[in-house]
Design goal:
The protein is 24% helix and 24% strand. The chain has 4 helices and 11 strands, in the order ααβαββαββββββββ. The strands form 2 sheets. A 7-stranded antiparallel β-sheet has the order 1-9-6-11-4-3-2. A 4-stranded antiparallel β-sheet has the order 5-10-7-8, with no helix packed on it.
Length: 223
């Protein structure tokens, strides 16, 4: 006979985003939370392999500001290069990431009542000398992005390499986040201003948004 109790406990031990995860309270209290072990070292390495492949395929482009209609490139505001991910690709090399994001999304719905439905993610590369000035990811009431998730891939990051994320919570002091490999920063897209300080070494990440309506594949056309 199948031992269901054992099966359930094995499944449960595989889950990261259980009811007692500190993220739910952090998000509710401060509007942001950090997860230091969101990706394993091996997952970071697999993500970097994909970044190098997409770079070789010339699939990165300069990131823009604003929606499709008022497309505008302004390197004075942001200097990163991005490549959108299509999670519907069969055997996607980042399937593990999409699975984790889905688990996070379900946890946010279950424990923070956010009613999230979909997600969109891109690879990001900040060359040395680039930054992203203080901004919000979504304008109140206008947009669909509720939660921002940034996953860092910088295996050799050390103080002085720059590229820190600075978060400006609604209350209290600003927070400086080192973009070290495996860490994820999660915050409310509409209310938490943030910036990326100038990178002095190439900086890699995977950035995305959890949205309140389904996206289809239209996001692949945007910046
Ligand atoms: C963004 C962003 C933060 C980071 O892409 O909108 O703010 O740390 N990224 O890369
Ligand atoms: Mn942002």
């Amino acid at each position: 006979m199948v031992n269901f109790a054992r099966f359930i406990s094995v499944m449960h031990s595989d889950l990261i985003f259980t009811s007692d995860h500190p993220l739910w309270d952090q998000l509710a209290a401060d509007g942001y939370g950090l997860i230091n072990d969101f990706l394993t070292r091996e997952e970071v390495e697999r993500s970097l392999v994909l970044i190098h492949l997409r770079e070789e395929e010339d699939r990165f482009h300069a990131a823009g500001i604003g929606a499709l209609g008022d497309y505008q490139k302004n390197r004075i505001i942001r200097g990163d290069y991005i490549c959108w991910l299509d999670p519907s690709l069969p055997d996607h090399p980042l399937q593990f990431l999409f699975d984790r994001i889905r688990e996070l999304l379900l946890g946010l719905n279950r424990y923070c009542y956010l009613g999230l439905q979909d997600f969109e993610f891109h690879l990001a590369y900040y060359p040395a000398g680039s930054f992203y000035r203080k901004h919000l990811d979504s304008f109140r009431g206008r947009h669909n992005r509720i939660i921002t998730v940034v996953c860092y891939l910088n295996l050799k990051w050390q103080p002085g390499d720059g590229g820190e994320l600075v978060i400006y919570p609604e209350q209290g002091e600003k927070i400086t986040v080192e973009p070290t490999a495996g860490k994820a920063a999660v915050f409310l897209s509409e209310t938490i201003p943030h910036e990326v300080l100038e990178a002095r070494q190439p900086r890699f990440s995977i950035t995305g948004w959890l949205t309140k309506t389904p996206l289809g594949t239209g996001f692949l056309l945007q910046d």
